[in-house]
Amino acid sequence: MNRLTEWQPLNTSKEEQHAVLKDGVSAQDAYNLLAQFEDKCVEPRDMLNPVELAEIAVALMKLKTYESLGLSPTELKKAKEDGCLFIFPCKIGDIVYHNELDADTQRIRPIKYKVVDISIPQNDDGTPKDIILYIGRERMECRASEIGKEFFLTYEEAKAN
Predict the structure, then answer these.
(1) Does the reported pTM lie above 0.90?
(2) Fewest CB within 10 A of the end CB: N or C in the chain?
């Protein structure tokens, strides 16, 4: 919508404002736009507030993400229910933390490791076992199910445990 009005201070106080027509906008233009709103039975109280508009924007961004995958939300839900969709806790190159004994201080502290690979091993029947993260140069294994228990995605989370 192209605004026909703008807010201007009512007096020297900036807290009080009133709407005025923008330069080049006639009163008739404003009356016509008002009539269009009234024809559609749109009352100011029926219009969305900024919070509702923000929620709609977030929902549209999520929908755009689904569309970029080439799948609808329903298809993604079905894939997850069928065990065909895996949501990884992190990606290759991310840092994870593991609490270990520091040889110098003899205290437990979070040690950071880089995720170098991810795999999904299968059971004999072909069903997936778990998501395995390989971390550090030694390619230590970390099961996705251990994230938040033995391995952590943030230093703060690791330190708290």
Answers:
(1) no
(2) N
* Helix (H) or strand (E) segment spanning residue 112: strand 108-119
- pLDDT of 13 reads 60
Q: What is the DSSP letter of 64?
A: H
Q: What's the CA gap between 147 and 156, in Å, rounded?
A: 14
Residue 111 within a domain? yes
Phi (first) and psi of residue 123, to 5 degrees: -75, 175
- The pLDDT, as a whole number, for residue 11 is 66
Rounded to an integer, what distance in angstroms lies between the CA atom of residue 126 and that of residue 79?
16
In angstroms, the CA 15 to CA 144 distance is: 54
Answer yes or no: do 57 and 80 share one domain. yes
- How far apart CA 32 and CA 15 sit, in angstroms, is 29
pLDDT in tens, 127-149: 777 888 888 888 888 888 888 88
Q: How many CB atoms lie within 10 A of CB 143?
A: 14
Give pLDDT < 50 ranges for the chain: none
**Looking at residue 43, what is its pLDDT?**
65
Which among 85, 111, 135 is the end of a domain? 85
